[in-house]
Write a structure and sequence with these properties.
Length: 295
């Protein structure tokens, strides 16, 4: 399917979607052909919509309507005091789909966002035609951290509030030297600069930890046997043998359930596959449509 030429230059339509009383989420919509399957792209914990830009542009260039969301507390969305749990994240997405009148879209979620779309696909297979979990969906933190205190000690985010944006950029470029300037800018959008020149995370720490607790409580391994929504797992082999082994075990459990589940490995692959390899991620999503896997 061919679509609008020069999609990278097409400015998305920015909208505010009311998902609860006094709570609006920032979304960006790229309108495609009415006959093409729509996509909704969902970021991970402490991330933002900018990380999906490359994937969104490739999908839109092929004619698809693409909606990219900042989840509550993230990016340019509202940050209410409550609602930082899996149930609310699922409800927010369902409200977005209904409000935008999307006809059974494919949902793609990265990391925590993968667990969110998995849960939505399990609860409401009627609302979507497929889901894609981008190095997510298989995250079951309780298997690595039997107690919440263990998880909290290991995964509480570092304090970066004494850094300037330039100092943070230096750290990011050292950590992922192969990432493009655009990819680095997407990471930087997770932060805002205060009046004194130092930065703060857009997602406040207490809200971050509330989401983390909800993720630790999630048990995706209990969903596969009764999952009715076609699911694509895109998994990253970063070279960390322990993490890769855990993902392969989770993948095996999912595939053994016998449902409509496919998995593709990126090796080597960064956790943010959608940022590192946007064209390949978009191509795999569209392949699922061409082959009738998402139906």
């Amino acid at each position: 399917m061919t679509g609008p030429a020069g999609s990278a230059a097409v400015k998305p339509i920015e909208r505010r979607i009311v998902v609860a009383p006094g709570v609006e989420l920032h979304v960006e919509v790229r309108i495609g052909d009415k006959s093409a399957v729509p996509f909704v792209l969902v970021h991970g914990l402490a991330s933002n919509a900018r990380l999906w830009d490359g994937v969104a542009e490739h999908l839109h260039a092929a004619g698809h309507t693409v909606v990219v969301i900042d989840q509550r507390g993230h990016g340019l969305s509202d940050a209410p005091d409550a609602g930082y749990d899996l149930d609310t994240a699922v409800a927010d997405l369902l409200t977005l789909i209904e409000t935008l009148e999307l006809d059974r879209p494919v949902l793609a979620g990265q990391s925590w966002g993968g667990n969110v779309v998995l849960e939505l696909g399990w609860r409401r297979p009627d609302a979507v035609r497929g889901i894609a979990c981008v190095d997510g969906g298989v995250i079951e933190l309780s298997q690595s951290f039997p107690s919440w205190d263990d998880c909290l000690a290991a995964l509480t985010p570092p304090a970066l509030d004494r850094l300037t944006l330039a100092e943070l950029e230096t750290r990011i470029r050292k950590s992922v030297p192969h990432f493009t300037d655009r990819a680095v800018a997407a990471y930087l959008h997770c932060f805002r600069t205060r009046a004194d020149g130092t930065i703060e995370a857009r997602l406040q720490r207490g809200r971050h930890l509330s989401i983390l607790r909800s993720l630790w409580e999630h048990r995706p391994s209990t969903r596969w046997a009764t999952l009715k929504t076609p699911t694509l797992l895109l998994l990253a082999d970063s070279g960390d043998s322990t993490r890769t082994s855990n993902k392969r075990k989770a993948e095996a459990v999912a595939l053994a359930a016998g449902g409509a589940i496919r998995s593709v490995w990126f090796s080597p692959g960064h956790h943010d596959l959608h940022l590192e390899s946007p064209e390949r991620v978009a191509d795999l999503l569209m392949q699922g449509i061409r082959e009738g896997f998402f139906k």
